[in-house]
Specification:
Blueprint (H helix, E strand, L loop, with lengths): L1 H24 L6 H6 L12 E2 L5 E2 L7 E6 L5 E6 L1 H27 L8
Antiparallel strand pairs: 1-2, 3-4
Keywords: Membrane, Signal, Transmembrane, Transmembrane helix
Pfam families: DUF2650 (PF10853)
InterPro entries: SUP-1-like
Length: 118
């Protein structure tokens, strides 16, 4: 029972930042697959200097993990976004957790967990 809870928590924890990022950045398209295929993990994106541009509050500079951009109803707030390589890591972790959960379920259904190994 505890393993199931940990697996569910890991899946949610791995997927939540990706869905939050996709929801913010995909205003014209709600297709998550387009977002995943358009990732550029070898490039670090820069932050927006200020929000709204040039006259608003200054946004912090980008680093290796996150960048900052304008968001909110009037684009007047600085929000952080994960760099593309971080999103790719989240996708890989989520896929690995889901794949291992499917394998464990199949092992339980087929009865290979009762002491006999294949």
């Amino acid at each position: 029972m505890a393993i199931k809870s940990v697996l569910i928590f890991a899946i949610i924890a791995a997927a939540l930042p990706l869905f939050a990022q996709a929801n913010i950045e995909l205003r014209e398209s709600n297709n998550i697959w387009d977002k995943i295929t358009s990732l550029q993990p070898t490039e670090l994106k820069a932050s927006t200097p200020s929000c709204p541009l040039l006259i608003g509050t200054d946004c912090p500079p980008a680093n290796i993990f996150v960048r900052y951009g304008c968001c909110g109803q009037l684009y007047s707030q600085c929000c952080f976004y994960f760099q593309d390589w971080m999103l790719l890591v989240f996708v890989i972790i989520a896929a690995a957790v889901i794949f291992s959960a499917i394998i464990r379920i199949l092992q339980a259904i087929c009865g290979t967990r009762n002491g006999s190994r294949y």
